[in-house]
Amino acid sequence: MKSVVIQQPGELALSERELPQPAAGEVRVKVQYASICGSDVHIWHGHNPFAKYPRVIGHEFFGLIDAVGDGVETSRVGERVAVDPVVSCGHCYPCSVGRPNVCKTLQVIGVHRDGGFSDYALAPAENAYRLPASIPDKLASLVEPFTIAANITAFLQPQSGDTALVYGAGPMGLTAIQVLKGVYGVKQVLVVDRLPERLDLALANGADNVFNNSETPLAAQLEGIQPTLIIDAACHPSILAEAAALASPAARIGLLGFSGEPCSITQQSLTSKELSLFTSRLNSKRFPQVIEWMDKGLIQPEKLVTHYFPLNEIERAMTLFEKDPRTCCKVILQMG
Ligand code: NAI
Ligand code: MN
Ligand code: ZN
C-alpha cells in the first residue's frame, strides 16, 4: 500500500509499505478520503512536540472497514466509518471523568501512531464511527475538525443571546462559527482575521459581522460591543490579553492554542470581570454528536473545502495548504 511517511523532520515521502494487520480489538480501514490539517504540516516540518518519526501522518480520515481483529464483529466489514484519532487508556483520572482526550497516555492516530494518509489505516474498533448515508464520502473526513468546535463549545455553553467573537477564520474558526450559528443559534457571531479572503469565508460560513485587524486594532472597530463569549482560533499568544480587555464582565473565553511562547496577562484583567477561561484539546467522544449535526444538516462541511487532490500529489497539496491561506482552506486527499 501507499502511505505518506514523514521519515524525519523535513522529509516527506510517498512510500510503499506492507499492508498492516488489525490486532485484537482493532479494525483496518481502507481509506477513501483524508483531509489536511495544520498539525500534519507541523509534523512534516518537525514543529509538533508530540510526533515520533518515521510517521504516517493524517488524523482526519474516512473509509470502509475491510478487516477486523480478534474480538471485533466480522459484520463490521464494509461499514463506512469516520475515525476518531483520540486513543485513550480508559482508566486514568482524565479518562475516568469523561476526558479521554487528555488521557495520561494519550495516543493520537497520525501523531503518536500511524495515520490516515495511506491506502489503509488501523484503529481501535470503538474509534471507527459508522456514518449515515446522508454524509457523503467526500465530506466525511471533516467530522474530526468539527469535533474540535464541538468540544470547545461544550465548555462554553453558547446561548442564543450571546455576542460571540471568534478570532481566526481558518478551518478551526470556521467550524466554530458554523457550530455557534447552526447548532446553538447564537444571534450575533463576530469574526476577526487579518486576511480579507478568510473573512469572506467567515461570512459564507455564517458570521454576522467580520473585522480585519491587519491595520486597525479590533478594539477600535467594535464600537463598545463587549463579546460575552470568545473563541481564540487564531492562537497567537497576544490574543488572550486582548480578549480579556474586550470581553463583557462574566464572559467566557475558550482557547485552542498550543504555542510554547508565554502570554502576558494580569490577574486583574481576568478577575475584575470574573471571566471564565476554558481550554480545549481535540475531542472527548464527540464523533456521535457531530455525525448527528451533519445528518440533520445543522452544519455544512462543504463550506470549508477549497481543494481535492489525489494522494500522489501530497507534497503539492500540503505546500498549497501551508503557503496559500488566501485561496486555500480545507484540502482533501483522495486515495487510490
Ligand atoms: P489557520 O492558520 O488556517 O487559521 C488561523 C487564522 O487566524 C488565519 O486565517 C490567520 O490569518 C488568523 N490570524 C492569525 N493571527 C491573527 C490575529 N492576531 N488576529 C486575527 N486573526 C489572526 O489554522 P487553523 O487550522 O484554523 O487552526 C487554528 C489554530 O487552532 C492553530 O493554532 C492550531 O494549532 C489550533 N488547533 C487547536 C486544536 C485543539 O484541539 N486545541 C485542534 C486544531 C487546531
Ligand atoms: Mn485536525
Ligand atoms: Zn487514560
UniProtKB/TrEMBL annotation:
Its cofactor is Zn(2+). The keyword Cytoplasm does not apply. Residues 24-132 form the Alcohol dehydrogenase-like N-terminal domain. CDD domains: Zn_ADH7. The keyword 4Fe-4S does not apply. Keywords: Metal-binding, Oxidoreductase, Zinc. Residues 171-295 form the Alcohol dehydrogenase-like C-terminal domain. InterPro entries: ADH-like_C, ADH-like_N, ADH_Zn_CS, GroES-like_sf, NAD(P)-bd_dom_sf, Zn_alcohol_dh. Belongs to the zinc-containing alcohol dehydrogenase family. This is Zn-dependent oxidoreductase.
